[in-house]
Amino acid sequence: MPEEAEAAMRDGAVLRADLYRPPPGGGPWPVLLARSPYGRRDPGVLARLDPPAAARRGFLVVVQDTRGRFGSDGDWEPLVHEYDDGHDTVRWAARLPGADGRVVMYGPSYLGHTQWAAIVAAPPELLAAAPEFTWADPRDGLVARGGATERGLLDQWTLGLGREVLRRTRTGRGLARALAELTAVQDRLCAGEWDPPARPSVLHALPRPGRPGGPPLRAVPADHTALRTPTLTVAGWYDAFLQGSLDNHAAARAAGHTAALIVGPWTHDDRTGRTRAHDFGPQAGEAALAGGSSLRDRTLDWLTAVLAGAPHPGVAPPGGGAAAAGTPVLVFVMGADEWRPLEQWPPPATPTPWYLRADAALSPVPPGPAEPPAGFLHDPADPVPTRGGALLLTSGYPAGPYDQRPVEARGDVLVHTGEALAGPLEVMGRVRATLTVGADAGPADWVVRLCDVAPDGTSRVLTDGVTRTYAAGEREVRVDLWSTAHVFRPGHRVRLQIAASSHPRWDVAGPPGTRTVFRDAARPSQVVLPLTAPPR
């Protein structure tokens, strides 16, 4: 059984934790710290962290409730207190009985954010961290994306954290009514009912990052030159926080710090690579990656190497052996369905534009001067439904490479498709689109999605993005589709979708109206693919 411990923060708030000690004998030990808002004894959290197993490997494991959550004092305010509290907790943990003064951190999602907050706060005892599936700038993937609100993610996440908030702030019948309303709203969302007659009052009562009048949002600095903590970042191509994870890694590496990266064909909650949407094969799962063990074991191996003084510990592909262990980046290349060791992310690539052409074509050949525009009618009462992608929504909207044909059959989705490929086309890196568009009213959203079309017609989403504009008229719009690593196989085709909504992922913008996408030489629309050469 773990032992309980209390840590006093600089303002007097007491945060409580469970300690898991190594077997008797030996020591002192380095501290392995995780800070969580989901409850330090939550079965899901403990399944991911497995503190007893980590303790058997020689770590003094500390799992702490963040401020305002479960056993800890204070008020819950997402993202706000993790910098100071992370700093103070690391310093406290380093001085625990049995600790050797060194602290490393681990954990996914919000637990990953608490690691970056502590890294920024820079307590001297923090020697390494392994953040998984987390964001860099909350305005790019957590609370918003391209100016559109991440409604689906925020609503379900805020409600999921809400019971503990209500239990602390209400009593008696008021508490019972609020809990009943929260349960009813969660049930509606899980049933796919995202449009009740009025926004539930219980959501207004819960702290929500980015809310009007709320605390300002803080991003992990893009410039990591002041940070000295080695990091192993773990991400998934279909995780809602993919790009933030990649941005954190790239910035740390650019500043010259020890930084390793693993990216699998995974979602936020699934690391098998074998979802309802698509099966990437047994080699895609964390067990294959880690030689039959777990991603957590791979993480602990890396943290142990840092503590042992390895100058630049890397990550090895399955069966890679000692020589490959120093490789800093390991990504799963979809389409080829193989793990690829790299010296850096993104790898060197050739930015190559593919243009929207007349007759719904997509081509690397630029358009002529007289190619007509394409358009559609946007009806906010009948938005385009979300179907797959890098998501974190309710169970009715799973993440992954889902077939887009049901979406593409709608009249309010533009579809442009390239010719069947004669040879493989490898895309690795950041994908961006630049559109010349027009709207007869604002605000207007421009949702762009890159897909791989198989010979049987299946159209699987690879990556997507959104940009919101606010005024009517014609303009150039840049849309960040985030990143991917994918090989379009011979016989497959490149496809680009353009829509005005993705519901309930993003809040629906604007009044009804016409959306126009131009595609002539003077007003081109294009997606830029980072093309790389497959290894020989």
Low-pLDDT runs of 5+ residues are none
In this structure, how is the largest beta sheet organized? 10 strands, mixed
Please work out how many helical segments DSSP would assign: 13
- Helicity level: 10-25%
Gyration radius (Cα, Å) is: 24 Å
**End-to-end distance:** 53 Å
Strand order of the largest sheet: 1-2-4-3-5-6-9-10-11-12
Beta strand %: 25-35%
- The counted number of beta strands is 23
What is the overall shape? globular
Question: How much is the average pLDDT?
Answer: 94
Derived structural class: alpha+beta
What does this structure look like?
The structure is a single chain. The model has no long low-confidence stretch (mean pLDDT 94). The longest helix has 19 residues, at 172-190. The chain has 536 residues and is of the alpha+beta class. Helix 3 crosses helix 4 (110-121) and helix 6 (162-169) runs antiparallel to helix 7 (172-190). The chain is built from 13 helices and 23 strands. The strands form 4 sheets. A 10-stranded mixed beta sheet has the order 1-2-4-3-5-6-9-10-11-12, sandwiched between helices.
Quick structural overview:
It is built from 13 helices and 23 strands. It has helices spanning 43-49, 51-56, 82-94, 110-121, 151-160, 162-169, 172-190, 201-204, 242-254, 286-289, 295-307, 321-324, 405-408; strands at 3-8, 14-20, 29-36, 60-65, 99-108, 126-132, 144-145, 148-149, 231-238, 259-267, 329-333, 338-342, 350-357, 361-363, 374-378, 414-417, 425-439, 444-453, 459-469, 473-488, 493-499, 513-518, 526-532. The longest helix has 19 residues, at 172-190.
